[in-house]
Amino acid sequence: MKRPDLPRLLITLGDVAGIGPEIVLRAWPRLVEICLPTVVGDVASLRRHAELLRIPRGVESVDEPVHDWRHPDTIACLQATEVDLGQVRLGQVDAACGRAAYDFVCRAVQEILRGQADALVTAPLHKEALAQADLKYPGHTEMLAELSGVTRYAMMLFAYRSGDKANGNTISSPEPPFSQSGQVSGWGVAHVTLHLRLRDVFLHLTQEAVLEKIELLGAILRHLLRREPRLAVCGLNPHASDGGLFGDEEACIIKPAIEQAQARGWQVSGPWPADTLFGRAARGEMEGIVAMYHDQGHIPFKLLAGLRAVNITLGLPFVRTSVAHGTAFDIAGRGCADPTSLVEAARVAVHLVQSQRGLERPGPVPSAAASRTNTCSEPLPARELA
User: Fold this and answer.
1) pLDDT digit string (tens) for 83-109?
2) For the residues 133-144, what does the mean pLDDT come to?
């Protein structure tokens, strides 16, 4: 049964020593309800996991992404590596797995760029395995940016707000949760810096970078929420520096970027103390947060969103979403991996593809690049939470 109206999604298998194959196997019946999925990975690894975990799924090898409806008990898998994964030991770092995971992503990007699929959803890879395979990528985000030839990109975590629609908590539902006004209810966080040592964050924090992430976040949230998002920006220092007592980055870098974004029409405020901002967003005061570094955004968002969190790469020429968790080597092969984040990632990808097909709205036209000057003599005025 063909369903040409459904988006065609490629699902990469990730590091096969982790839980990627298991969550794909468990998620498959729900995936075929909402999209036309093809797994990009290793056929033999999927079959071994299905047998080991006693998950009743067949695995059919295909030569190209499928464009028709698939049986819920039969996975279509595009063989995407020549690496022999037959001796892989679950839960252990292996260069072969790192290389294969990279091959999966390369093949998926190739297929999407030649128009054979609409979006990419990735299972987790392992950074140490990549390094052992001499692949010097700190993660999917940087890898995908290089493969796509983009330099303006960001990582975002997103989650639908639950409870706004009768089926909003049903992860197999093809529809996102809507508010009573008919708008989508959700929230997310984007990161100015990402996979860096903390000491290096200060070297990469510029007014231009903050402004770029505000605009990338605002643009994607327009598609996801189908309205203008309310954005807020974290400070870098404790209490957003308390009027300059703990640093001048808020006054010299972050606040000027916010003001420039406001001048371009974005509904954005800040810089706000990060320790209170996420709670406010979770209560619905804003839909988007710009964090200054990885853990400032990841820790509170994952704590609040749990397995409903989805990773989205902003700035790519195609839709890419991912689970918001790692390879979970500690539970690989035990049969207890939860596929919720993978199904949520597919739902978000479907939503984005459909939104961009029919609800395209351009963001504000960028002006000249913002200043990279990081020095300032005036301290940030004291601010109180609203």
Assistant:
1) 999 999 999 999 999 999 999 999 999
2) 93
Q: How far is CA 283 from CA 7, 130, 277, in A?
A: 32, 38, 10
- Counting beta carbons within 10 angstroms of the beta carbon of residue 246, is it exposed (0 to 12), middle (13 to 18) or buried (19 or more)? middle
Domain that holds residue 166: 153-306+362-386
* The domain boundary residue, chosen from 89, 122, 149: 149
Residues 145 and 90 occupy one common structural domain: yes
CB contact at 8 A, 252 and 258: no
Residues 244-301 have pLDDT tens digits of 777 889 999 999 999 999 999 999 999 999 999 999 998 899 999 999 999 999 999 9
Q: What is the pTM of this model?
A: 0.84
Q: Is the dihedral of CA 315, 320, 321, 323 positive or negative?
A: negative
* Average pLDDT estimate for 324-346: 95
Are the C-beta atoms of 100 and 81 separated by less than 8 Å? yes
| Packing angle, helices 340-358 and 207-225, rounded to 10 | 90
- Is 369 found in the same domain as 243? yes
pLDDT at 69: 65
Which of 107, 134, 149 lies at the terminal end of a domain, its last residue? Answer: 149
* Alpha-carbon span 24 to 13, nearest angstrom: 7
SS3 288: strand
CATH at 192: 3.40.718.10
Q: How many domains does the chain have?
A: 2
Q: Is 156 helix (H, G, I), strand (E, B) or coil?
A: strand
Integer angstrom CA distances of residue 118 from 1, 343, 375? 19, 16, 44
Residues 184, 287, single domain; the answer is yes
For the chain, how long is the longest CA-to-CA vector? Answer: 67
Residue 341 located in a structural domain: no
Classify strands 310-314 and 74-79 as parallel, antiparallel or unpaired: unpaired
Quick one: 142 and 157 in the same domain? no
Contact 24, 46 (CB under 8 A): yes
